[in-house]
Amino acid sequence: MNMGPFIHEDFLLESECARTLYREYAQPQPIVDYHCHISPRDIAENRRFENLFEIWLAGDHYKWRAMRANGVDERYCTGAAKPYDKFLAWAETVPYTLRNPLYHWTHLELARYFNIKELLSGETARQIWDCANAQLAGDELTAQGILRRFDVEIVCSTDDPTDSLEYHRQIAQQNLPTQVFPTFRPDHAFRVEDAAAFNRWLGKLEAAANVHIAHFADLMKALRLRHDAFHTMGCRASDHGLDTCPAEPCTEHQASVIFDKVRAGTSASAEDALKFASFVLHYTAQLDAEKGWTKQLHLGALRNANPIAFRTLGRDTGFDSIGDWEQASSLASFLGRLAEERSLPKVILYNLNPADNYVFAAMAGNFQDGSAAGKIQFGTSWWFLDQKEGIEWQLNALSNAGLLARFVGMVTDSRSFMSYPRHEYFRRVLCNVLGSDMERGLLPRDESMIGRLIESVCYGNAVAHFGFPKPRKHEHHEALARA
Question: What global pTM score does this model have?
Fold first, then answer.
């Protein structure tokens, strides 16, 4: 019996209320992708992708993990196999991903980018490859074409302080419908446990800031100068990827002593590295507060867990997982000290361990100070949790411990231009949760009231929270942000 396409207009929408909420309130909203890792160069140069492998599989450690689990040799993941052979290995893996979110994402992406409704498998691989590649040869699916197609209003890339921001300047001069802003990610400034790597990075920072860095005060000056430069380019957020939030007491003198040793070539001990990171993170938070930025803390990833893979393949190749560190006390110390100094910036807390959902959701409530609605955010589901169940868990914890109506919503957190349906996926899950509550009498059956919440979570709250420069392109969404 023909059951119709797997991806259909009511995908994930299990009630009439959910379907109405999605179509009337969520679906029309532009995308504000305030945290991702896509390449500004690709946008500036309007990159054209040669084939489906290049746009969809290259660099995708989610797919690599599934392929390895399915017994696929590494040459088809990160190795030297030909692009089609890698795609075929992925296509043959897809039928084994049932109940993994990759099955949903794969078919949603094929449908939204290429209008391909067939299920991907080894049998359909060649047909889908040819169909997708033919469309990639046109102008609709270049880097800029994709941003237009998905109505992406704002993109925030993730950038080291040493980045010249040249591609952001090129984009700004092109007057695209999509605004592209950098995000300040100074994590290399913390990593004094490896003196050689730290000193190499300092050389890049010297060049970017035009400052000779001989002493710790020079490092602080260089970071401030780059922070200023990022702000000029529209940056309104910093970002950090950390195991836990470093919050050890450390004076400027102690940080300076540690710096001098590392600058001279001696790697810091674990204890000194934690102190140094605590001081520098606190300093960057003060800079963020001065400029009204948002500090994003991505906490809890256990990275490079497989030592053989790390030695042979390097970082970001699919061998990271959820960590189980204690998070609450150090996070409270970090936020509390800033609050005492009246220098607590807006903050988004992202956790990776679902056991910490309520820890993070409750922690956000400890530091709301009335200066701004939703000043401290329990951030959206991230990495291993950005699937249906994980999104529902995050929404439930946030709703129970905070204010869902002030939530700044979803991000792609992706390096791929094929990830924009993640916003649709989130919006469908959000509407399904709220629609189900309406159907069961747990929320009022007031479509307009629930609809306003959905519009705010999908778009307006993020615009209001970050305060990005330049006028928005939709006046009615400006009104939403002000509301």
Answer: 0.95
